[in-house]
Protein 1
Amino acid sequence: MEPARDIYGYRKHWAERFGTAPFLPMSRQEMDLLGWDSCDVIIVTGDAYVDHPSFGMAIVGRVLEAQGFRVGIIAQPDWHSTADFTALGAPNLFFGITAGNMDSMVNRYTSDRRVRSDDAYTPQGAGGRRPDRSVIVYAQRAREAYREVPIVIGGIEASLRRIAHFDYWSEKVRRSVLLDAKADLLVYGNGERQICEIAHRLAAGEAIGDITELRGTAFARRGRPAGWIEIDSTHLDAPGPLNPPLDPYAMEGVPAAAAAAAPCAGGDAPAEKVVRFVRRVKNAERDRSVIRMPSHEAVAADPVLYAHASRILHLESNPGNARALVQRHGDTDVWLNPPPIPLTTREMDWVYERPYARAPHPFYGAAEIPAYKMIRFSVSIQRGCFGGCTFCSITEHEGRIIQSRSQDSVLREIEQIRDHVPGFTGVISDLGGPTANMYRLACKSREIESACRRPSCVYPGICPNLDTNHAPLIELYRKARALPGVKKVLIASGVRYDLAIESPEYVRELTQHHVGGYLKIAPEHLRDGPLAKMMKPGMGAYHKFKQLFDRYSKEAGKEQYLIPYFIAAHPGTTDEDMLELALWLKRNGFRADQVQAFLPSPMATATAMYHSGKNPLKRITRDSENVIIPKGLRIRRLHKAFLRYHDPNNWPVLREALRRMGRADLIGGGRLQLIPSYQPPAAATQAKPAAARRAAAPPARPIRTQHTGLPHVPSRAPARKPQRERH
Ligand code: B12
Ligand code: SF4
């Protein structure tokens, strides 16, 4: 991996003389007060503007400001006209467009595609303040407002839709969002490096169309550049013959015979002489090689090719060895440069220590923004995740190499919160990131890490090359809670427990000092079938962690509980798997308040499984492993119902399923049975009949719920609301 340019090492843009804005301006009046006649960059975002490093627009804005650029913010504009898009005038360099911290479809719809009534990123949590597919809509409006201004899209929505991708909400494979948004450049992954380089180069007079070699970007290209070695992805991982193209004259359902033996030419584009086409390249040539993925049209028509493309994309995701990817859409190529080089600790510190106001813009007055409320006393200590859970796409976004801040920088941020954030009572609600305990963990060897192509460092077991030393994290926790004015430091990010048990000392530290009565952890399932498709550890690790957790809680004289989370309807899950899980939940006295069904979010490996029925964790061929997919509302509801076996509303559907599965023996009032044969009248569910009560609650111990984490019977443990929702 070549060394990257330091992001704080650029010569500042001339407008640095205007200094630091208390908040980045959202109006002309604010610009006037700052003495600006124009903005160099305007960021349009689907979230309310909170000037805090947990919000992408603030990070990107403040990083650009530190480079000397004047940055304005247009937050949650009315997208029905261009009026809001012209509020700050035309930017001198470019519009930066993001849907916000989340994909707008994930944000707006539940996993059953119902519209959510709320939006944590909007004042008062109000829903409906951003359009579906925000990046596309905003980019179009910005283009209408100022035709000549370059458009750079970024943030999670753009990042995870950078290539042809399955879209759960329209049930089809959509084109790269770059083309639908008609943007000039797409920034993917963490954006600091790219955005600095883009801004400086545009300021120096370079045309946006000439920025084509920047890591972590994608752009559209017609024709092929000279000097590149092109490798057909299907030579790297051969999926077998293509599905025959449809013959318009064939009778319905009869395939076109002539096309049946079509060779697999994933590129399906005419070859030009400027490029060499090869099967294998030497290491020395990797920098000039590009992998041609099957075209958008091909992957849209053929789910097996789609799974193949997903596998290739994931294989080519380590910045140490990833090659550029190219995918044809109609007559245009979408070219994806390799991922950005991770930020160093010094750079991370610099990014997180910009002069954030740590509050929502005054424009919002007293209105509360729930996402801000949840993180205002928490600190991000790292980015990235090497877990590789297939249903989560954080690795596809932030990468597998952990980017950590220094302890000093984290401690300084805690002091900032203590000294400046109104309402701080001495409790830090989280020190975390995508996971709680990957801080400073890495491969033991830089060389090995650079060459590695495994999708996870902890699955199927912990890689012997992974350094699992939790000492720096333990030290950080100790220093944080020793700071004057800090009474408690809670850990609310997800603990990777298979990793944590490698360090009993960490589990002790966590359990005895950083748990507020309940600790949420996510086994996600207990059966090997679904776990293997999720790339999650077996229950052995859970039990070991629980033993340690219980032992250390007792040692500290604390009554504390683990709250396990599970996913329903994940690819690879059978009805029997869910039944086993329900029986386990009942045996262990767990009752879930809300449960989560698998959401096929853009670019996740499990989404490729969901769409294709294939397993991209292994080599894909036409005959490779088929995965069971619980698809459709009926089965998804059933799987959720198993998780909420105690809810009388679910009993009819569960009874029917148990009979169908030949497990009618589990219906009845016995202790070992799952649900009663008795059905209370709907209105009377509150006044539970005896059978219902028995099924719902084993009497001896408190029953805990997922999500709220609150016990159903009074307990001595302090009841507190969880600080963070789950990921
Ligand atoms: C903290 C957090 C929360 C907090 C909110 C605070 C916050 N600020 O987000 C809370 C607890 C409220 C929360 C809730 C939820 N969250 Co959350 N959250 C996070 C988390 C861990 C950190 C967010 C953060 O610090 N972002 C800051 C910056 C660093 O990240 P970024 O937005 O990606 O920005 C970078 C780039 O994208 C780029 N960039 C950003 N903007 C722009 C703009 C331009 C122009 C350019 C060029 C580049 C660019 O540069 C930035 C710097 O590198 C992220 C995971 C992560 N990112 O680490 C999940 C994450 C955002 N959450 C997620 C989810 C699913 C949820 C929930 C739905 C969970 C649930 N099941 O309930 C809820 C949603 C609530 C709702 N809709 O009402 C998902 C979103 C998935 C998706 N595809 O959209 C994420 C990615 C986690 C995951 N593992 O998948 N969350
Ligand atoms: S060799 Fe092991 S620890 Fe190193 S990057 Fe690869 S999977 Fe991770």
Note: The radius of gyration is 26 Å.
Protein 2
Amino acid sequence: MSDTVRGQQADVIVLGAGIVGVSAGFAARQRGLSVVLVDRREPGSETSYGNAGILSSGSIMPLNQPSLWSVLPTYLTNRNAALRWDPAWTIRNLDWVVRFLANAAPSRLKPRAAALHGLIGASLKLHRDWIVKADAVQRIRETGWLKAWRSDAVAAAKAEQAFLAEYGIESRILDRQGMSALEPSILPVYKVGLLHTQTASVDSPGAVVKAYALMFARSGGEIRQSTIRAVMPDGDGWRVVLADGAITARHVVVALGPWSADLLRPLGYRVPLAFERGYHREFKPNPTRPLQRPIHDAEGGFLMTPMEQGIRITSGVELTARDAPSSFAQLDQVVPLARGVVEFGDAVGEPWRGARPTLPDSLPMIGPAPRHSGLWLAFGNQHIGFTTGPATGAAIAAMIGGLPPSFDVSAFAPSRYL
Ligand SMILES: Cc1cc2nc3c(=O)[nH]c(=O)nc-3n(C[C@H](O)[C@H](O)[C@H](O)COP(=O)(O)OP(=O)(O)OC[C@H]3O[C@@H](n4cnc5c(N)ncnc54)[C@H](O)[C@@H]3O)c2cc1C
């Protein structure tokens, strides 16, 4: 194994410098492999930039869980801010929709929760370690995450708390007074709250990914900014064709987030990847009434996170084609609701749109491509990719080195779909 990249040959080429790719690159460097990390943009400029910045200990229940059935009728009207869907896309992708709904069966909840719990636990450890090593520790807040209900949803909060407790995940139920004491700036619109006490958040996910990328570069990794055109077998390794040349390596890691399926299709892999699109808009905070932590308005269908540039409001899910034109209907619906919770001023910058990459079982693919040696898949991290990126990347680096990852990856095997 070489220590640095010589010419255009490396041990590992990582495709995509979002949180997953940067993490895979850094973890591979830590194992002494020479690594080239390729992205057409600067690290952390796409999905890993615009998310809500939550490092969630408790997101072990995917969107397609049994309670989805009870809210499904409200989604059918296409007016719920939590989920909008494009009928034409749905008809074209009925196979994905049926498989996604089939995973909401009660019997499918616990195995997936256990798998995600292992992935999240491993990842939070890495984040807390790496953010210090990357000189970005000032960006993390250990203040938890508040899920809040406007209705008297004590039973729902208790059920969620009990489920999380089965996995050792701590949370605290709060009433109106408890929430006011915790978060004095919010108006008393919520009746019930569930504070995920072991959850952290950051004030700029894009900046955190950039800091991790710098740490990767400092460790001897090479970052190359170029568009990836194709990946093809080359002897007993791989050739990656870029807009401005080609690189070869023994191993290639596909960590292209919502773009991952495109590059795999010419190799014969039809990846059932859909796009849970989401939006954000940031607003000038009132400095005398700051928010201390992210708040999830459970019935309003949005999140508010205090960020470096202002209060970031993130929307729910829009199920449609990845590159379909933006629709700001969900943001328009929730911003007035958010104004009724916390004071904030004018918008800062333009609205942002991204796409959560999601497989039918809401579990990522982490592991080897079934029919090609040296091809590794690391994508599909849905709503929790910023949280789970580090352990996704570290697991791939371990497997490249022939070692078992630090958590059970069997549920994430790409062979379950390919
Ligand atoms: C609104 C919203 C809120 C979210 N909130 C949270 C949250 O609070 N917590 C959480 O854990 N997760 C959250 N997520 C999910 C999380 O953001 C994603 O799961 C995660 O960022 C995916 O990371 P990634 O590295 O797989 O993809 P990306 O960050 O998208 O990285 C993929 C990279 O591939 C590059 N690329 C693609 N094609 C090419 C090509 N042909 N050539 C060169 N480069 C290419 C892109 O430029 C990009 O940099 C949220 C997502 C959204 C949309």
Note: The chain has twelve helices and 21 strands.
